[in-house]
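Hey, can you fold this one?
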Amino acid sequence: MNLMKTLTLKNLKLNRKRTIVTIVGIILATALLSALVTLVSSFQYSMIEYQKQKGGDFHVKFSNVKMSELSEFKNNRNIESTFETMGMGFAKLDGCKNEDKPYAYVMATDEAGFERGCFKLIEGRMAKNEDEIVIPRHLKTNGRIDIKVGDEITLDVGKRYDSNTEGVIWENSAYEHEAETLTDIVTKHYKVVGIMERPGYGMEDYSAAGYTFVTYSDELAAIDNGTKSEADTTLTVYSRYTQKALRNKDAVTADIIGVDEKLFAKANNSSVEMTAEESDRFLKEMENAKYDIYMNGFLISYECVFPIDGTFKALFTVATVVALIIILTSVYCIKNSFNISITEKIRQYGMLASVGATRRQIKSSVKTEAAMLGVVGIPVGTMSGILASLILVKVVNALSAGWLNFALSFHTSLPALILAVILSIATIYFSATGSARRAAKVTPLEAIRNTKEIKIKSAKLKTPAIIGRIWGIGGVISYKNIKRNKKKYRTTVTSIVICSVTFIVISYFMSMAFSVVGMSYASVDYNIGINMSCKKDLDIEKLSELLSGIEGAEDYLVGAGYYFDVDKPEYTKEYGEYCGQLYDDSEDVSQEFLITVLNDKSYDKYASDAGIKNADTGAILVNKGTFDVYNEKSSKYVKEEMELYKYKAGDTIRCGYNVYEDAVDDDNAVEGDTESSTEDNSGYVDEETINKGVRKTVDVTIAGVTDKVPTCYNGYGNTSLLFMNQKGFESLWADGKSGNEFKPWNAIYSAYVVAENADEYQDTLEKETAENPEYSQISFYVSNMDKQMRDEKSLFTLLGVFAYGLIVVIALIGITNIINTLSTGMELRSREFATLRSIGMTDKQFAGMVRLESVFISVKALVIGVPLGILISYLLCVMMNRMDDAIIYEPPYKAIILCIVVVIMLIYAIMKLSMTKLRHNNIIETIKNENL
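Sure. Predicted structure:
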């Protein structure tokens, strides 16, 4: 066995070029696998860290825990660690503009809570004693109360008491307005030492009535240091489970809160449907549970190795598919390298077998060669993969800066790297096993004579006459050589086909992705969209002054939308049939109309562009629309443009809407004030109030009909559109016209701006609205279309980095395989070439023969690869068209041309280099060489 190992090592040293090429293939395969598992590990780690910052470093939150019960959590073997918070109470905030969130909720914690809770500090520092406090940023942005670091504040802290239920209100419950008061008030003085982002949902519910203020607790700090507390204060315990407990989180949690394990697990499993009886029983059990709980679901799913669900199930599935592609490609390419090695040494194996070497020893020799190559290739490949991952992480962060919610952190996982090494070993093993078996099967006589490699029939070597006529004897020899060495050249062709198809398909996907992004924004003629909400009517002319007054506004439009319904509108035949597809009987279904009141400047421009005179007297009707209509012949939906109604200028449309008795009877009701229709003035209309709605109608005169919407306007689906100016709209209700003193409630306010620089305009707008108290009761939601388009393109660019990176590595594996196959093939045929040159073949004929072989190989590979790439890219387009019919297939011509050029140049360059080396060989010495 030592002799066989010595021979194997000597052969590797003598055949350095093939050894290096094989090691490069192993390095590339291992690097790709290592990079893959490292990137998956980095993404998982980054998501876990992001969720800890966003939602807190805990798995389950237990509320209403008595201080005396805390030891049960500290001593629970299923709980790895805990931190606690203590609710100090609520304090009324003077000057708060958010009527549904009028309190400060004072929470106390210690160092562990500040470190592992979702308190992201943006200014100052955390509290260090009970006289210091940290406030949230949204106190200013949402509540419009501006408190700065260093300010001293006084809070009258108490408990929320509900007079209806005569009980204390839970900390995260919504504000009960008139029904609640504060009791047991204690005055506290604090110094503000820091400002933080709004705490996560697990600490401050979106419906919570108070802004979370966090102070320090000496009592909790003492408990963490081992001191027992005599007080029986109520705490909130945030627990982090052990990895084992996390896999059985439902059973562990159910045991702690004292409910049925099976019922609790079923209720938390979205894939299992509960019966009505089980649901009722579960609700009763949760009402009687020992503690209220909140589960940090995202963190649990990110950290739970098994069972895998949600985001990481998709991620691991994709990673598994990519890993299989890498392994299969690598096995194919590395296996070919071992096959070439066997072919080169087949005479040697025959000689060894003839002097007593067993099949097992020959197999062992091949596997030893694989092990030696792996010992060099795997460590280098692993380190290369880790380095490539580090570079990719930096590239991802650079490309995703500004739109990805978290930064990708580089993270290596030892189990993941061990997995990559195991997969690499498996790749080398499967690559070498077949070759080892083949080497062991060859008999000594066959090996020495070397007659098993080429088995042909004369009919298969028949050469088409056209090849001889065009290329002469060189072309015939090239053609015959490819035909008789099909196995060798099939590997080369397959490698080229894989690379070509992958490149064409991914190139098409990238070009289609950017095309779709461009198409989706091509119809948008504005780059800033603004939605506004307020509890009272807004003056759109004042809003126009605000938006037009900001530097860089080139054009703008402001609108207030009101929904109406029209009974039995005058449909055109085509649109009536379309509505009949949507409803059983379109004649009896009312149609929804949206009347949008525009600012005067935009309305006048719109009327002028549409050629409508006297537009102030009524409304402009948009009478064309594009709809997805079902085509029975093709059994698919197609887009059709059609006229909607038979209305013309001068016609009247009777529009219906509801007002509510509470609003009509309320002496304090303000026109357009929707809140006066509710008893508590909270902005919510209860079911009883809705049932008291009174049907009202108003007649709207059509001033003109057009096909187009105003410039900068973004419509609302397939709703029928009417446009009016403020004066015309107000005239519908002037002097109690038609008995309708109240306009419809719940207007939709929106604005669209064409800005010279969308980013600068957005920054200025947000700054002006935040600082101006005139806009304190208006919520502005700004959409920067330029940024959205950049973000989408950045996302696809990011995908492109990974996709093209995968192509490059697979191509490199394929290229090493091609180099190995062709160069070794040329060397093995050096006696043949020397013989041809000895009987008179000139250098020119020799070069022509080699070039023809390059052409034959390239053409065969491209004839298979290019059509296959086009077919797969077309199928990809068809799949995308199931979601959007707007994509028209266009072959990726640039990618195809580039692919053809690169393949021809690559094959020719490899053959040319090998040919140059052979030219310098001595003809007589080459023919005498029996080792070839």
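The longest helix spans residues 785-828. Let me know if you want another pass with a different chain boundary.
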